[in-house]
Amino acid sequence: MTTQKRVAVLVGSLRRGSFTRMVADTLADLAPAELKLEIKEIGNLPLYSEDKDEADPPAPWVLFRQQIKAADAVLFATPEYNRSVPGVLKNAIDVASRPYGKNAWDGKPGGVISVSPGALGGFGANHHLRQSLVFLNVPVLQQPEAYISKAAELFQDGKLINDKTRGFFTSYIKAFSAWINQCQLTKPPF
Q: Which domain holds residue 31?
């Protein structure tokens, strides 16, 4: 019997009607039984400051760090803001990577999916995020890459209406599940 893997999903858009959240919700619905995708809210995290962390870390930071540590893997769903990730997502990454030496992301298998109403599918945000994840020791799924373009055309009333995209999401989440298993089997003992 396979144990269900807990996947923390971070959505980099706080907008009501966010296409990025719609993608995350769709992936959760399509996930194989061995994965449990849970969106971890990041909009309530105070901006990271080392001064706050040394004295008395805010309760939302403590809870978020615990949630990331408890996860078996992490899936990042991000829109693109100015060829990068939104500040709220970067803040969440910083919060869970601190204090120094207590990086909650360390060794967690990861996936990145970028979403855009434009034609490039958030390519810049996707790759910029991957740069940070290398430093944080998050082994990221390389293939299939996931750049979701023209997102407004894919959903109606919050539900995915494009069968070709549904097929891609299904193959992506299955590949992500296999990636998690591979990373856990080959994880170095340090």
A: 5-186
pLDDT value for 2: 62
pTM over 0.90: yes
Domain count, the chain: 1
Cis peptide before 46 (omega within 30 of 0): no
pLDDT tens digits, one per residue of 113-155: 999 988 888 889 999 999 999 999 999 999 999 999 999 999 9
Encoded tokens for 161: 């209406």
CA atoms within 13 A on the CB side of 144: 13
Beta bridge partners of 78: 114
Q: SS3 for 189?
A: coil
CATH code for the domain of 127: 3.40.50.360
Cα 122 to Cα 119: distance, rounded to the nearest angstrom: 8
DSSP character string of 46-64: PPP-HHHHHH---HHHHHH
